[in-house]
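Is nicotinamide-adenine-dinucleotide placement plausible here? Inputs below.
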Amino acid sequence: MSSKAVLITGANGEIGHGLVARLTEKNPDVRIVAIDVHPLSKTLQEKCHEVIVGDIMDSSLLDRLAAFYDFGTIYHLAAILSTKAEREPVLGHRVNVDGTLGLLELAARQARATGENVKFLFPSSIAAYGLPDVPSKMKAGKVRENEWLDARTMYGINKKYCEDLGRYYNWYYRQIDPQPTTAHVDFRGIRFPGLISAITLPTGGTSDYGPEMMHYAAQGKVYDCFVPESATLPFMVMPDAINALLQLEATPAKHLTQVVYNIGAFSVSAKDFYDVIKKAFPNAEVNFKPDSLRQKIVDSWPADVDDTLAQKEWGWKAEYDFKRSFDEYLIPAVKQRYTK
Ligand code: NAD
Ligand code: SER
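Reply from A.M.:
I modeled the complex. Tokens:
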């Protein structure tokens, strides 16, 4: 077996792009093993030790990885996002739940074999929450981790259940085994808000209207926004999301009392997005054409989250508020991206 490696599933996705870049910037010698059903871009491939175009549901692939590598940390990013999982719920469940279970088993087997904990970083979501209607949502304000947990989407239910699986693997795995293992899966989850990247475009999500509005405006394309101006969600830019994953990964386990934490940056309406985008791209054309079915999903997610626990236990603080996100990260980077 070779020395400790980092496994990233779903490495070709939006978070994967940011994470692979940041991990290699931080430590050029990091050995990243990346899996995705889609091939990684050439730049990403060059940063990885091994790239596998494959499915996390392929158990023989996971067996091969377990036999060949000793993983210190697994970033399990592969998933079917909320809108796609609502269109194909069985696929969503298979990838989001069965896929996660397979990865947790891989981590548990490795912990047993090496006698060392394997860190398992899991991006959960505000979709784990389910609020009954907009008045309740606006009244609830910043929701805490243990409130409003009646998720209404297949994706949200999958995320919540995987958090519970993480709790099980972390604290109770094979609890009646007469010969308990000395090491375990050190599961660490974050309920991310909607993420916005200047580098990649989202696909298959429900918070996509925010980033889509900006990317369309930067390309001079008309955007039909599928939620009304008043729709409000918590959002965060990708550099902060990557910071959060790295910060939580680096925190000593003794500081952590939970397996999943909220993190917040800013809470904004679709109109707030429109205003800031219109200022940067005066020709931007956005039509608010709510799709009442997708809107219902947004309405069931909280307007904001309480991240006191993450602040207290691992020092979480977003570096980018709404203004700084657009002024210093999003607008300059998308302008550069589309004027190349
Ligand atoms: P993404 O859709 O850009 O990336 C997911 C990646 O997983 C894709 O590259 C896809 O090809 C890959 N994938 C899907 N099924 C797979 C399979 N069976 N085997 C291997 N690879 C597979 O999404 P993202 O924004 O990068 O999200 C990464 C993680 O973060 C997901 O778990 C998502 O639920 C979570 N998350 C994202 C957001 C957000 O706003 N982007 C918010 C909260 C949580
Ligand atoms: N942003 C994601 C989505 O919309 C939620 O995790 O699916």
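Short version: Residues 81-82, 125, 127, 155, 194, 205-207 surround serine (ligand 2) (CB under 6 Å).
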